[in-house]
Specification:
about 120 residues, mainly beta, 4-stranded antiparallel sheet, 11 strands
Amino acid sequence: QVQLVESGGGLVQAGGSLRLSCAASGRTFSTYVMGWFRQAPGKEREFVAAHMWSGNRTDYADSVKGRFTGSRDNAKNTVYLQMNSLKPEDTAVYYCSATKGGNYRVINSYDYWGQGTQVTVSS
């Protein structure tokens, strides 16, 4: 019912920036939360940020707070994650997701997932 398509990943040097995009289509609601998660090889998928559509506000994991910024374009039904001051430890596959409710920091709360986009930060 909801499709999420991600883009914007790539290779960047430490200290550089990338902007991820997540375009949503299908049946959506103003109460949806759009989540960002990442997963590095051999590690658990972890919470990065969550955008509350109804309030146009983003909450962040402590590990990225002050470096990453969430935003959206209503006309395009797209959320963005601007990633600045990137570190090698930010290297992971980044996933966008959507949920109608629940704890937005918990993976199991999310109903829909994008295909993932690779972010690689070199030293």
